[in-house]
Fold this protein.
Amino acid sequence: MSQLWQIEDKTSGATRQTDVRREEILANPGFGKFFTDSMVTADWDAENGWHDAQLLPYGPLVLDPATNFMHYGQAIFEGLKAYLHENGTIKTFRPFENARRFERSARRLAMAEVPEELFVASIEKLVERDQYWVPSGRERSLYLRPFLISTEIGLGVRPANAYKYILIASPAGAYFSGGVNPVSVWISDDYVRAAPGGTGEAKCAGNYAASLLAQAEATAHGCDQVVWLDAVDRQRIEEMGGMNLYFVYGAGDSARIMTPRLSGSLLPGITRDSLLTVAADLGIGVTEGEITVDELKSGCESGEISEVFACGTAAVITPVGTVKSRLAGSFEVSGGKTGSVTLALRDALLDIQSGSVPDRHNWMHALVG
Ligand SMILES: *Cc1c(COP(=O)(O)O)cnc(C)c1O
């Protein structure tokens, strides 16, 4: 446990959700709809650095209307999960990776960086207090949402001189309610998510705001998700919505997987990174490379590309079954079905996260028990 940061517990006497209501919520939590009893906050200013780290009852913030982030968008976030293992311990997956990415995102948006130890200590504190909110079951977890906003009051445009770090938590069932069914994707050629030199590598709120219209366009074309192309040539496939992509070449013993190389405009997913290792463990060859829309289409048609899947913390691994685009038309992947390599990788990752196999890579970090 991190000793460096004392997080003061200010929840004594606060009311908690009743056991009955909590069990009701945990029976069908959905995603991001319900929140636990508590939250952690900490403040930064130039004079005091990080201070006032505290555990508080979950509740509204009171903010001045001239609070800087509401106007100029200095806002970043992270997403990770806590899992209840069969022996009663609660663990999280590679939290220091999230902490380091959070620091890099802060740097890119000229914000104060939250120290790794404070980030992890806040998770330990909140999950210990709200441990009864971690649902049991392999596909279920407590989703943790750390975020950072600028809190300087005023409309001057410059890096703010004050920031607030907040951690909230939300019980999560399976992300896609229909189970592991392939999604259909729309390749966006008119909107881009991120350009070289932009903020694509940072997990910032603005990237999501900028993606919503393209996602709406995907929906209008009857697709579940949007796929992004590189901003320069609009040829190379980068990501799907808020998830990274993998392409499976060949099948059976000779199957290998490829994921787009981190180009500066892709978000470096921790699930993406973990799968490079998990695939190698399973004897599946892995490479980082590039693929254009035309190569995807001809690969799917010739059978060279046997499966495509997306990966990220929230939805773990999601197969792609149908691709639609303006220029290359519509085509199927894997005959629109979930492929065996996709399922094997999904199972292998869930086995580690749910504690049903030994944690060979030391990825799990104990929070409670
Ligand atoms: C968060 C995110 C991912 C996935 O990252 P994980 O660390 O695997 O959850 C991928 N793409 C985008 C755009 C994201 O915001």
The radius of gyration is 21 Å. The helical segments are 19-27, 69-72, 95-108, 116-129, 205-220, 270-281, 293-302, 340-354. The domain at 183-354 is CATH 3.20.10.10 (D-amino Acid Aminotransferase; Chain A, domain 2). Residues 79, 203, 239, 242-244, 267, 269-272, 312-313 surround pyridoxal-5'-phosphate (CB under 6 Å).
